[in-house]
Amino acid sequence: MEIQVLKSKIHRVKITESNLNYIGSITIDENLMEAANMIENEKVQVLNIDNGERLETYIIKGTRGSGMICMNGPASRRVSVGDTVIVISYAAMDFEKAKEYKPVIIFPKEDNSL
After folding, report:
1. How much of the chain is in helix, strand and coil states, percent to nearest 5?
2. What domains are there in the chain, each with its CATH number?
3. Phi-psi group of 112: left, alpha or beta (phi > 0 → left; psi -120 to 50 → alpha; rest → beta)
4. Active-site residue among 8, 18, 25, 76?
């Protein structure tokens, strides 16, 4: 049996940009992606601490070291610049292996740096 488990988490980052007229997704600083063991095009859940919204999208690689967290496309209507969000990805794995798996969780500073 396979189950879904927490794979990676970027805990509490600030939205720095919002771009309604983009094709969709969330753009994340490449440093944050690497630290959280996330890759471009990976499906993620975005949890908005400020308004309780939860949405799913995929990652676009942002400029390394920029601190960028940009919500793109229709999802930008559910998140405002300055909102604090949590970005989570999950993985499917064997039930027994999942018991031993340790997710990667990062806690960026207030300016979205590590």
Report:
1. 15, 45, 40
2. 2-94 (2.40.40.20)
3. left
4. 25
Q: Is 22 a catalytic residue?
A: no
| pTM for the structure as a whole | 0.97
Whether 58 sits among the annotated catalytic residues: the reply is yes
Q: What is the DSSP letter of 75?
A: G
Query: Mean pLDDT for each 10-residue chunk of the chain (114 residues)?
Result: 98 97 93 98 98 97 98 95 98 98 98 98
Other Cβ atoms less than 10 A from the Cβ of 12: the count is 17
Distance CA(12)–CA(9), nearest Å, equals: 9
Which of 58, 80, 101, 113 is flagged as catalytic?
Answer: 58
Handedness of CA 49, 80, 4, 8 (dihedral sign): negative
Helix/strand/coil for 111: coil
Q: How far apart are CA 34 and CA 75, in angstroms?
A: 23
